[in-house]
Amino acid sequence: MSQLVQLDGEGSSIALLVPETGMPLLLHWGVRLTAPLDNATAEALAVRASRINGLDESVAAATLLPTGGLGFFGWPALAGHRSGRDFIQSLTGWDVVRDEKSATLAARDDIVGLRLEINLELHPGGALTMRSGLVNEGREPFILDRMMAGTMMVPERATELLTFDGMWGAEFQPIRGVRPASLLLRENRRGRTSHNRYPALVLGTPGFSENAGEVWGLHLGWSGNHVVALDSLDDGRCLVHAGELFEPGEWIIDAGDEYRSPVVTMAYGAGGLESLARSFHAYVRHALLAWPGGRMRPRPVTLNTWEGNYFKHDVERLKRQAEAAAALGVERFLLDDGWFGCRDDDRSSLGDWQVDRRKYPDGLDPLIAHVRSLGMEFGLWIEPEMVNPDSDLYRAHPDWVLGVEGRPLVLSRHQLVLDLTRPEAADHVFAQIDAVLARHDISSIKWDMNRDLTAAGDRIGRAATGRQTRAVYALMDRLRSAHPAVEIESCASGGGRADFGALARAHRVWLSDCTDPTERQRIQRGASIFLPPEVVGAHVSASPNHQTHRAQTMGYRALVALPFHFGVELDPVGLSEADRRELAAWITIHKRLRPLFHGGRPFHRDPDDGRSLYGVAALDRRQAAVLVTQEQAAIRELPPPLRVPGLDAAARYRIRLLNPAAPDFIRQTAAQSDLLGGGRLVTGEAIFRIGLPLPALRPQSGILLEFESQGA
Ligand code: GLA
């Protein structure tokens, strides 16, 4: 007898039919089912005939973690063997343990000697997580070639695909296309989440957009090698599997041991990417973020010293910058790379986490005390997983790096990766960072990771990326429990480690080393499908921009960063008087609006004629803020009316333009100036249905509008 397992959450349901033998059948994942299914109906709906010349008895294809060898001809999500034998796995005798929002399904293969467990859980906001585990109950090692964390099924109408590619400085680039009719594999072998294969994708109905169409999204919370596989079924539906990617021989489960997968998170949205983002954001907030003290504090406006100083640390200059930052309203001063060892450039000292006495003769304390006396928190940059060959650590322990004997040690940014699967190496790094945190008044760290892994093997030459990823997580967890008040920012040459696995241990991600607002718009838009704004670091940097050399106004730079975890990354002492005044005003605006930015309902609109919209409406609909930015010059005479969703239709709103300096309008009429100056009260319905006639903007400029309800 098959068992029906149905979980219903906020806006979403999953329905599975668990057979006696074989993998659990996926009947439904998507919009919430309102009429309960029963076993008999589910069985009737699950039956699929095979075609002429097919097997006499059809084998279910739409299953969780399908296995091969017995008539499923698609991509197996679980595969392995015992020294070449037992290549077929077939699970039987399912045991289902469930409550209202979760289910654990477990079964055995007695021929091979395996026990498989699959956990499913629905979260507030509608996201569904899956993870899997495999126990070797046999007497010999089981060589696991592949084991996905979970499987998402999408219906035949989800024919469009959105994935995220990119590179350093250009993360989260959307790639939109038609879902292939066959198999699509997206594999990441860089040993970190990567800039170019974000472990997530979205499938949707034709033409899905920010606010329309049905969408199904999947995200693998894993900061190592991964695979996401799309496998179209014969009936037009599609399975998406996600899990860890193993190098040959990487995962051998000894007798009695087990393999545990990372977590894959799925979300469904009936109203475009915006509705999908709501589920993912709720998941990150409820299931991942563990704030010191149990609650998120308002995100402190941060000054990061990197682009304003690079490796040139001078205590007096840094103190002047701290004073200027505090005067601007900055709340956290984060000292980036360059404070330790003898680090004058990126060629040395990683691994030597002692304060550089040439630059800081009295240690970090005088600077920290100064920063604290100015009312700011102090944060510090570290890159614990790495070592430069030119370092005391490497000279003492050259064997502590990941590498395979006889193979070259490939340098990247002049650095090598410590083999943290060696307990002595992990203990050493822990002790050094623990000492830095214990001896100083530090409230946050920026945890960087600046290279891809190569020849990532251990002492006996076995591939170690999966174990290294777990060891990095263990090191983070250990430091977090030793210093529970310290927040962590996850960075990997920008946004190379911005996945949910990292976010289960961090409180912010550095999304990209590119701080040019025009480039950032696209990067932030892609990331915002998965990451809530309060964890996304976004900084105002110098003009001309250091990465693109484009010159941009203070207003445009501030606007694009404003709704996120806002910060500044420039030498504040060198600002012109006008820029300094304007930046201080933006920081004041950010602080006033941050409860809305970080607690409201965000929406994006697809760029139209070079113009982007990002807005947030308060949950009680009494307030909204909308950022309108013109990235490129428009080619239509006039912009379309601005329509703001999420307002109370009957309430009348005062509209106010908040830019501290005059916006770059091409031409503004007196009526427009009156409207944007709060001179007219407009109903929420009119703002949404009719829209506001905004003046056209010059390229690389923007405005911030606030809507405040004055009641009905
Ligand atoms: C990486 C980070 C930067 C900065 C440098 C320091 O590139 O992404 O933000 O911290 O390292 O070396």
Describe this protein's structure.
It is a single chain. This protein has three domains: 3-288, Beta-galactosidase, Chain A, domain 5 (Distorted Sandwich), CATH 2.70.98; 301-599, TIM Barrel, CATH 3.20.20; 604-709, Golgi alpha-mannosidase II (Immunoglobulin-like, Sandwich). The protein is α+β, with helices and mostly antiparallel strands and 712 residues long. It is 21% helix and 30% strand. The strands form six sheets. Strands 5, 6, 7, 8, 10, 11, 13, 14, 18 and 19 form a ten-stranded antiparallel beta sheet that branches. α7 runs parallel beside α8, α10 packs parallel to α11 (554-561) and α11 (554-561) packs parallel to α12. It has 14 helices and 35 strands. A hairpin with a 5-residue loop joins β31 and β32. The longest helix is centred in the last third of the chain and has 23 residues, at 577-599. The relative contact order is 0.09. Residues 306, 336-337, 381, 448, 450, 491, 493-494, 510, 513 line the site of alpha-D-galactopyranose.
